[in-house]
Amino acid sequence: MFIARNIVIGCVALAFAFSVNARVVDPDVPITSYVSFQSPNIILSESGPILGEPLTISGQLRIPSAEEPIPAVVVLHGSAGLDSRGGLYVKALNNAGIATLEIDMWAARGLSGGGNRPPLPTFTVPDAFSALKYLAEIPAIDPNRIGVLGFSWGGVVTMLAATNFYTDEYGEDLTFAAHIAHYPVCWAYTAGINGIFFDNLTGNPVLIQIGDRDDYDDGPGPCEALAAPFSNVSVNVYKNSYHAWDRLQPAITVIDPFSHQGVGGEVEIAPSPGKAFKSRANVVEFFEAGLGME
After folding, report:
1. For residue 51, what are the CA distances in angstroms to 13, 17, 128, 166, 290?
2. Residue 11 pLDDT more than 60?
3. C-alpha–C-alpha distance, residues 78 and 86, integer Å
4. Please, how many CA atoms are within 13 Å of residue 48, restricted to the half-sphere of its CB?
5. Cβ-based neighbours of 110, under 8 Å, separated by 6 or more
6. Domains, the chain, ordered by start
7. In this structure, what is the dihedral angle of CA atoms 45, 49, 55, 58, given to the nearest 10 degrees?
8. Of 24-33, 86-95, 222-231, where does mean pLDDT reach its minimum?
9. Which of 161, 141, 159 is nearest to 291 (CA)?
């Protein structure tokens, strides 16, 4: 990654200005709004990473009815962009009394996903913290009980958001209370990629969910090794499951240079409905505990 630990990007505060474009769409479901807010825009220049004009990130906000402030979860998509995975978990979290904010990290950048994505997930870490700040300013949300759930690319962002480095850089005194990272390319955090690391954690709980046939890590080994030193990090392994087992859409095969522990090549993406529903239950259970609902 192009953003080293010793690079401090100035003027971040101005990029946390928020605007809202909300609309209730159905009174019979959680209050559903389409919202937008600004986020720091990291771009590359000849001299290195700099801040460009702030991005306007959009998302779907769903708030279940409650008499007191409730917990919330930020949902971060994978390289393909918004797909069926978000909805699978959002509805279950809402049913459990947890608000959700699923954001689109590609549209504001004029990207379509897949290979058309930023150089590395570090470029989108500010979006997660901007969403955290947005939620924290909503009276119906408890600012101390906000978690984050990410898939693949979003899973990497989720892992980075668990570190004190990125929390101090973008959190503005806010911290994610719980993290779930699905198949977050675990080999990369110890590979010396600039800006990709998983150490000096905030201490809040982290759950990694990975399939044993994942073509990025060639199995669960890298995730299990990454989690081993930390008492607050756990790993669920789903047997006979490929990358994005919870993407309940037709199977596809993609090419990614980050697959097979950086060797590159084909990635099989295949749905497994049974594992997806089990994963969904595990996600709800984890956030209920991590966000103080038990």
Report:
1. 11, 15, 16, 16, 33
2. no
3. 10
4. 9
5. none
6. 15-290 (3.40.50.1820)
7. 130
8. 24-33
9. 141
- Quote helix, strand, coil % in the chain, to nearest 5: 30, 30, 45
Element (H, E) at 135: helix 125-136
Determine the distance from the C-alpha atom of residue 247 to the mean position of all C-alpha atoms in its chain, rounded to a whole number. Answer: 15
Coil, strand or helix: which one is 164?
helix
DSSP code per residue over 236-283 = EEETT--BTTT--S--EEEEETTTGGGT-EEEEE---HHHHHHHHHHH
Neighbours of 229 (CB within 10 A): 10
- Quick one: average pLDDT of 84-97? 97
What six digits make up the tokens of 86?
Answer: 């978000």
Does 97 score more than 90 pLDDT? yes
Strands 206-211 and 252-256: unpaired
Note the pLDDT of residue 26.
Answer: 54
DSSP 3-state of 151:
strand
Look at the block and give the residue holding tokens 């209050």: 31
Confidence band for 49, pLDDT divided at 50, 70 and 90: confident
* pLDDT at residue 39 tops 50: yes
Burial of 171 (0-12, 13-18, 19+ CB in 10 A): middle
Q: What are phi and psi of 169, to 5 degrees?
A: -70, -40
What average pLDDT does range 18-41 have in this prediction?
A: 73
CA atoms within 13 A on the CB side of 265: 9
Angle between helical axes of 84-95 and 273-290 (0-180°, round to 10): 50
Q: Is 132 helix (H, G, I), strand (E, B) or coil?
A: helix
CB atoms under 10 Å from CB of 277, counted, come to 14
